[in-house]
Amino acid sequence: MPSFSFNHVALSVKDVEESVLFYQNVFNIPEIKNTASNSKTRWLAFGDNKQLHLIPRPNEEIKITKAVHFALATPDIDLFVKHLTHLQIKYSDWMDVPNKMYLRDDGIKQVYFQDPNGYWIEVNNDI
Known about the structure:
alpha/beta, four-stranded mixed β-sheet, 17% helix
C-alpha cells in the first residue's frame, strides 16, 4: 500500500474574492498560483505544501453543517481568539455557546467559526 499525505481542502464559494480576503485576514496565508488550470479557482497556501482551494460557484446552493468542517491548530489559541474578536468574527464552542472556547476531555481547547459562505472552521491547540 502506498503512503499518503494531506494535500488540500477545496471549498465551493459564492464570492471567491470575498473568501480569499477572509482567509488571508484570519490566517495570514498567501495566495499561490493555480497551476491546475486557467479557471477562476484561487489557491491559498498554509505551508508545508498544504493548500486551500476556493472554487467559485456563485449560482449553486451550498449545504453546510457544523459536523462538516476542517480544523487548523495553533500553539497560542488564546491569541488567536483575541484576533477573531479584533476582526469581529463570531465564534462558539461545539455546543454553539457564543464567545466560548470548548475544552475537550483530552485537554485540547477549540473554537468554531464560519467563513463568508457558512463553512465551519475549527481552530484548536492540538500541536
